[in-house]
Design goal:
The protein has 242 residues and is an alpha/beta fold. The chain is built from six helices and seven strands; from the N terminus they run αβαββαβαβαβαβ. It has a single domain, classed as Rossmann fold, CATH 3.40.50.720.
């Protein structure tokens, strides 16, 4: 580890030590990377996901498509900790396909998890975050800025996250720090169960989710008076950005 890396780790550890932070989707992919980074920095992390968190991290199993259950889970975590300092909404799903070929149930679940779940987590967290001038990091997508075929549900949900986060930033200005992360393609299990036509080309370079998690850590550890509003992190040859 270089001297600069050591300094960064020490700074993050100081900023985040013992701070209760919720990470959604923390059982795999970007969420797991973010949760591990936060734990390494000394944060008191709780994962919200349908699956148990990896590496024995504290977690509550909840279906993020269920807004009321998600709100209850956030309040439970905050009340048990006595406070809540941050939330990072990494949970995301997709069912690619033509609009008229994706079932209504699948289409609506994508929107429910990605957009409604994000809003539910933040809604329940805001009173706690206001009390400590905490932080929110939402996770959008390059497909929240650019529409492509066979992704109506995903684009609708992530365009919604973009609009939601920008409006939330204006609404909570001065009370809660809000950052929107826009990641491109990452080397995760996100693409594993897709038809080959919906998988990234084998030659396409994808981001390491740990490197994208570094951007989340950067946003969460800015000093008072400095807010990171939006971050875009993509592979060099990302086809959906700009």
């Amino acid at each position: 580890m270089s001297a600069e890396d050591s300094l960064g780790v020490a700074s993050a550890t100081k900023e985040l030590h013992d701070r209760p932070i919720i990470v959604t989707g923390g059982s795999s992919g970007l969420g797991a990377a973010v949760a591990c980074h936060l734990v390494s920095a000394g944060a008191a992390v709780t994962v919200l996901d349908r699956q148990p968190a990896a590496a024995g991290l504290p977690s509550l199993q909840v279906d993020l498509a269920n807004g009321r259950a998600t709100e209850d889970a956030v309040r439970q975590v905050a009340d048990e900790a006595g406070r809540l300092w941050g939330v990072v909404t990494c949970a995301g799903v997709d069912v690619p396909g033509r609009f008229d070929e994706v079932s209504s149930e699948e289409w609506e679940r994508v929107v429910a998890v990605n957009l409604v779940g994000t809003a539910a987590v933040v809604r329940a967290a805001v009173p706690y975050l206001r009390a400590v001038r905490g932080r929110v990091v939402t996770v959008a997508s390059t497909l929240g800025h650019r529409a492509v075929p066979d992704a109506t549900a995903y684009c609708a949900s992530k365009f919604g996250v973009v609009g939601f986060t920008r409006a939330l930033t204006a609404e909570l200005r001065g009370d809660v720090g809000v950052t929107m992360l826009t990641p491109g393609g990452m080397r995760t299990a996100f693409f594993d169960d897709r038809d080959e036509r919906y998988k990234p080309p084998a030659e396409l370079e994808l981001c390491d989710p740990g490197h994208v998690a570094d951007a989340v850590m950067f946003a969460l550890t800015r000093p008072p008076g400095c807010e990171v509003r939006e971050l875009v992190v993509t592979p060099p040859d990302e086809t959906s950005w700009p």
